[in-house]
Amino acid sequence: MGSVLQLTDVSVVRDGNRILDRVSWEVQPTDRWVILGPNGAGKTTLLQVVSASIHPSEGEAVLLGETLGKIDVFDLRPRIGFASSALARRIPADESVLDVVLTAAYSVTGRWNETYEDVDIRRARRVLAEWKLDHLAERRFGNLSDGEQKRVQIARSVMTDPELLLLDEPAASLDLGAREELVQLLGNYARSTEAPAMVMVTHHVEEIPPGFTHALLIADARVRAAGAIEDVITEPHLSEAFGLPLQVERSDDGRFTARAA
Ligand SMILES: Nc1ncnc2c1ncn2[C@@H]1O[C@H](COP(=O)(O)OP(=O)(O)OP(=O)(O)O)[C@@H](O)[C@H]1O
Ligand SMILES: [Mg+2]
User: Fold this and answer.
1) Which residues pair with 20 in a beta bridge?
2) Which of these, 150, 210, 200, lies nearest to 178 by C-alpha position?
3) Are 164 and 3 in contact (CB under 8 A)?
4) Residue 191: CB within 6 Å of ligand 1?
5) Whole-number Å distance between alpha carbons of 84 and 55
6) Residue 224: in which H helix or E strand, if any?
7) What distance in Å separates the CA atoms of residue 131 and residue 158, rounded to the nearest whole number?
8) Residue 238: which domain range?
9) What is the count of structural domains for the chain?
10) What share of the chain has pLDDT > 90, as a percent?
């Protein structure tokens, strides 16, 4: 199989501003990418392009072998798993956890009159177990803790067995224990040969799960560095992207830390 995604000089223009500026980027099926960059850099916009949610204003985006603009995005979207806080806000608070995951099979939020096959229900329960949520299957989504809600969103995003998994700040707002639990689950998933290509946006190098292989740094709408994680998550690159001198360390288990130098 070829590249999972290939962007060539992709720009996105909004209100006359280039919020993505000539981004070129390629992801292979076994890659696990982390995207880092300051607030407003364009990270979420980039995920919107590669989830087929928006089209580039300029340039070419090929997703899973299909060129955006030449195919029906409704055929493409079920092949891409996407978890973000914007999507989570559309989940009804009174929906059961099982239904939150199950409804992904129809690309909807909020169960209505769809009928689900036993095979879908079995898969939803298996996915819940993988993300340590089986004991919460009958609970209402709105009553879960932030950490539990984040895991439900990820479980939902892998329900359709996607070929590309996109996570926009999956660890945002989590406490230390919940963050560590999620980093460990994501790390295990990243190392599994069954897992799809992964792209995760984060603000903190501490949240990069071991097993992630590549990194893309973006600042002011432009890619500042992209490639193997050890070549990108470095003091010079991070200091330049975030605009202050940073001290960056990596421990033997693959975890990173960063602080002002
Ligand atoms: N639809 C839009 N119209 C106009 N400007 C937009 C639109 N969407 C995003 N922007 C602007 O584009 C820039 C990039 O936004 P984006 O959400 O991609 O940043 P981000 O890197 O995800 O930031 P954060 O880390 O805060 O989530 C921001 O300045 C934002 O205000
Ligand atoms: Mg964002």
Assistant:
1) 12
2) 150
3) no
4) no
5) 18
6) strand 222-228
7) 10
8) 5-260
9) 1
10) 86
pLDDT of residue 78: 87
| DSSP helix/strand/coil, 163 | coil
The answer, yes or no, to whether residue 1 has pLDDT greater than 70, is: no
Question: What does pTM read for this prediction?
Answer: 0.95
Q: Give the pairing of strands 5-14 and 58-63.
A: antiparallel
pLDDT for 91-131, tens place per residue? Answer: 999 999 999 999 887 767 777 767 778 888 999 999 999 99
DSSP 3-state of 129:
helix
Residue 33 and residue 199 in contact, taking contact as beta carbons nearer than 8 Å: yes
pLDDT at 124: 95
117 lines ligand 1 (CB under 6 A): no
Kind of pairing, strands 214-219 and 222-228? antiparallel
Q: What percent of the chain has pLDDT over 70?
A: 98
pLDDT in tens, 168-217: 999 998 999 999 999 999 999 999 999 999 999 999 999 999 999 999 99
Read off the pLDDT of each residue in 30-43 and give the average, rounded to a whole number.
97
DSSP state of 4: S
Report which protein residue has its CA nearest ligand 1's atom 30. Answer: 40
CB of 219 shorter than 6 A to ligand 1: no
CATH of the domain at 218: 3.40.50.300
Question: How many CB atoms are located within 10 Å of the residue 148 CB?
Answer: 18
Q: Tell me, using a 6 A CB cutoff, whether residue 4 lines ligand 1.
A: no
Using CA atoms, how far apart are residues 150 and 209, in angstroms rounded to an integer?
15
Candidate of 45, 57, 200 to mutate for ligand 1, largest count of ligand atoms within 8 Å of Cβ: 45
CA separation (Å) from 115 to 36, 205, 245?
A: 40, 42, 56
Q: What is the DSSP letter of 162?
A: -
- Name residue, tokens 């996570």: 167
